[in-house]
Design a protein that fits this description.
It is a single chain. This protein has 16 helices and 14 strands. By secondary structure, the protein is of the alpha/beta class. The chain has two domains: 195 residues, Periplasmic binding protein-like II (D-Maltodextrin-Binding Protein, domain 2), CATH 3.40.190.10; 196 residues, Periplasmic binding protein-like II (D-Maltodextrin-Binding Protein, domain 2), CATH 3.40.190.10. The strands form five sheets. The protein has a five-stranded mixed beta sheet. Strands 12-7-13 form a three-stranded antiparallel beta sheet. Strand 4 and strand 5 form a beta hairpin.
Length: 422
């Protein structure tokens, strides 16, 4: 008996405990996040006794390639890192989703309960959570305090968006060649930047909780009408990605709504010293409403073809929410982690020289606890960008009224919903 036990022990040592690490293949499209995973690779491998292989897959080919390898069964990733916006892989019906629902894991996880609920909403379709968010991206208002005060406006005291745009007319009053020298806000003429962020504050959902499109509500109509009026006031300029920092530096752009990853656009202008910049929560859309929003972001998920999802979930949770690692992440990237248990750390309460000593991190953590309750779902991105988006352009050009555009948009969205639910 003792011989058998000894032989079994030797077998376990030789072939079990010393077994080669299991290979875990991860796909990501985000170069900046890949840099983080590469830096932490050795630690992750040691903790889980795995060989972590990280591959960058082009964003424009990601979904098509994932679908192809899942059908073929070869070269399938164990973990994917994909974008929250227009993700194309999640579905309220778990049978139709590309990735496993994580409900049984998150329900019993002591770690996941610390992830900001407002951020989880973006990876929750129907009743299922499908991914672990990498970030929370609370939106703040960054503004040129010097310019605003030069026209008699202290934005620190402006509470509502209506008051903001009324005050902005003082700012845009100074003109050259018939055009304002200064603009209050940038916009890309679509619902994918400033308009998208402010819309989240309204509570006007584009889907109801069953996933049905709701573009024809009075709340959404009110918002679109108000937005077009603000735009026509002449206080909004083009959202110019390539020249954004330059527009801040030369004073053309006097304020912008910013998630954490876009804050550094102000760095050059702030360091130049000509202007003093400040930061605050977003003005409210309606009194008592949300003072922030969210924009952008990624999540980790497990493709349905992956084996051993139990271990893969543990790996993902460690990658996203290890307290020491996410503090380093914030220091390097300025992106706030969605993990509330670290938000009381002194590192989030430091004075920020760019904003005259204001504590940006403290403001961001405060706002992250109060993210708007946005209902996402299978048709969410299609309704916004494919059904409503083209008609929004028609409103801006004057070819459609708000009522006409929303009617046409709702009809297109209803057809999409009908086709989906056949």
């Amino acid at each position: 008996m003792k011989k058998i036990t000894l032989l079994l022990l030797v077998f376990l040592v030789l072939f079990g405990l010393n077994a080669a690490p299991k290979k875990v293949l991860m796909w990501s499209f985000a170069a900046n996040n890949i840099a983080e995973w590469q830096e932490r690779k050795a630690d992750i491998e040691k903790k889980f006794n795995i060989e972590l292989v990280i591959e960058q897959v082009a964003e424009q080919a990601f979904v098509q390639k994932l679908q192809a390898v899942m059908m073929d069964g070869k070269g399938v990733p164990d973990i994917i890192e994909w974008r929250i916006e227009q993700n194309q892989i999640l579905n309220a019906d778990p049978k139709k989703s590309f990735v496993y629902p994580l409900d049984k894991y998150v329900a019993k996880s002591g770690v996941f309960k610390n992830v900001a609920a407002g951020r989880v909403a973006w990876v929750k379709y129907g009743t299922s959570v499908y991914g672990l968010p990498h970030d929370v991206h609370p939106v703040v208002l960054i503004y040129n305090d010097t310019l605003w005060k030069s026209v008699g406006v202290d934005l620190a005291t402006v509470d509502s968006w209506d008051d903001f745009f009324m005050a902005a007319q003082k700012l845009s009053a100074e003109k050259k060649d018939g055009k304002p020298l200064h603009y209050a806000l940038p916009w890309g003429n679509a619902m994918n930047d400033s308009m998208f962020m402010i819309w989240q504050q309204t509570g006007a959902q584009v889907l109801d909780k069953t996933g049905k499109p709701t573009l024809n509500t009075s709340e959404f109509k009110e918002f679109v009408t108000k937005w077009i009026d603000w735009y026509k006031s002449g206080t909004i300029c083009a959202w110019d990605w390539g020249n954004f920092a330059a527009l801040l530096k030369n004073g053309t752009l006097a304020a912008y709504t910013s998630p954490d990853w876009w804050v550094p656009q102000v760095n050059e202008a702030a360091s130049a010293g000509q202007y003093q910049f400040k930061v605050k929560n977003l003005p409210y859309y309606k009194k008592g409403g949300s003072r922030t929003a969210s924009w952008g972001g990624t999540f980790l998920a497990i493709p349905k073809t992956a084996k051993n999802p139990d271990q893969l979930y543990s790996i993902m949770e460690y990658m996203q929410y290890d307290s020491s690692a996410i503090k380093v992440r914030y220091q390097k990237t300025e992106m706030l982690p969605p993990f509330a248990s670290v938000w009381d750390d002194p590192m989030f309460k430091k004075e920020d020289k760019r904003f005259g000593g204001q504590k940006l991190g403290e403001l961001q953590t405060t706002l992250a606890r109060k993210m708007p309750d946005v209902v996402t779902g299978d048709l969410f991105w299609d309704v916004i960008f494919r059904d409503f988006g083209p008609n929004l352009a028609e409103i801006v050009s004057g070819k459609m009224t708000v009522e006409q555009a929303l009617k046409v948009s709702q009809e297109a969205a209803d057809k999409r919903y009908k086709d989906m639910t056949k």
